[in-house]
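Let's do one together. I've listed all components of the complex below, 267 residues spread over two lines.
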Amino acid sequence: MRSFEKHLPEFDARRIRVIAISVDSPYQSEHLRETQGYRFPILSDSNDVVIRRWDLVDPHAGEGGADIARPAEFLIDSSGRLRWVNLTGDLRVRARPQQVLAAFDSAVR
Amino acid sequence: MKRSWNPGLWAGFVLVLLGVLTYPFFFARFAITRDFPWANLLMIALAVVLVTRGVLGAYRRPDQYRGKVSATILAVLAVLVSGLFCYGIFSVTRRLPASHGAPRIGDMAPDFTLPDSKGTPVTLSVVIRSPFAPSGVSAASGSGQTAATVLIFYRGYW
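Okay, and this is what the predicted structure of the assembly comes out as:
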């Protein structure tokens, strides 16, 4: 997330929107945006509705055994079609912004 | 002859702790040292060499170095700590669901509406077809439609 914030100008230059989603409440997400200086929107899926529909649930991995989202990144073109997907096999290894930009440059543009 | 304490052993033990603790507090911040923790593994490897030499010294030259017992305890602790680190790094963080039902390349993104951090409902299908609004400070107001959208699902901070 921090690295995406850092590369936001490159996403802006390509007219790519960056949107994050987690189970955090809007209040918690707003706190995160303020303290971390994230300028992209963070959506709140407190009841795992979207996370479940997209089959991205990491069961009982949250505080108090709550279901949360596994890390995943998706690139969606202007028609709503998925052009690039990253489902990491390791929590520590997330998509880097450069990967997404490269995917856009080769698969979408 | 006065027996001296065993500096290599203690240096090795401190290095094990540093090798483990600098990962969450420092090296995990950078992709190049996070994705594969080579910096921390190097520190731990060096520490293992130092501790091993320290233990050998304590046993082979008890006239020179004191503390066979403390050397053994430190060595066991060092092995435990570095073992836990490797277990955490190479096993725990890889326990992720298969997500076979997740949308794939070529699929249409399943639509949804969720509140943003200000409580305003955001609908995916509307966003991806809307005129682009830069999220960066004031990058020359993007004229034209949104070219693409990146969705980042993350664990959250609860």
